[in-house]
């Protein structure tokens, strides 16, 4: 057991801290916007839920860019969901833009207004796309993690999102906590062995390599029974070493490996006590095409765990809120082997917010 100094309870509820986070934390660190597999082909687009549909990723002749999804005429949303277009046309007045955002048609205007769509470049790491000239490439991510999160021959399957009524930092804390898994996740604990974890802890990220359980014929829940049965049938005796690899890129990006699935989830604050989690699922192309049942089972097992994590976050939020309203602050010990990355996360927050 070790004692450490976590962030004050005030930081989960104080609007002034939330304003500092927006300026000093999120604007100053890499902002994930999507993956190149969302727009793999020329003229593919993908509307971004993380920006409330006001931006799109689009694949044009010169690469991939972020474009505004708001018409410059009457500010209507231009595109929805995802698809493939040779030009971006507003359905209301037929103003049309090239896939690089240039206004190319405005009916009944003798001269085109100089009103192009706002455009931003993206930076790429391992297929992940970040707004602008991101500094993520300046951080050396160990090669082992790079291999575990290799998206070669993967396809983007789908994304989901969920709104939560608690501070975003609580979600990150639970992600970095393996201590609760044997007690709260009846399904997950039969897939991963938290008694065998390798940690990598750096200034801007941490990684948990968690061994797969030795006997996958033991199930905790129906969803994990389906996933483990599909996994055993597909892999036969060639099971991977790890049941999960969990990477947190601070402050709010989570990249997760499971057998035959990679997930990118990003927790976005939408207020001091509200947040949104966007989850993106990727699977090996061959598995996606020949064994959709395995992909479906893997996703449902993950979503079961995510729902349980929401319950944990809600309980922690309610307890801390009760203390905050009484003007109290409490710190507990942390379990070094199973909560090893929490101090690094708190250090990252403190360094950036106190600038």
TrEMBL record:
InterPro entries given in the database record: Rieske_2Fe-2S (IPR017941), Rieske_2Fe-2S_sf (IPR036922), Ring_hydroxy_dOase_asu_C_dom (IPR015879), Rng_hydr_dOase-A (IPR001663)
SUPFAM superfamilies for the chain: Bet v1-like, ISP domain
Record-level Gene Ontology MF annotations: 2 iron, 2 sulfur cluster binding; biphenyl 2,3-dioxygenase activity; iron ion binding; monooxygenase activity
Cofactor names: Fe cation
Domain Rieske: 30-131
Keywords, ordered alphabetically: 2Fe-2S, Iron, Iron-sulfur, Metal-binding, Monooxygenase, Oxidoreductase
Top-rank taxon: Bacteria
Keyword Transferase: no
Enzyme Commission numbers on file: 1.14.12.18
Record's protein name: Choline monooxygenase
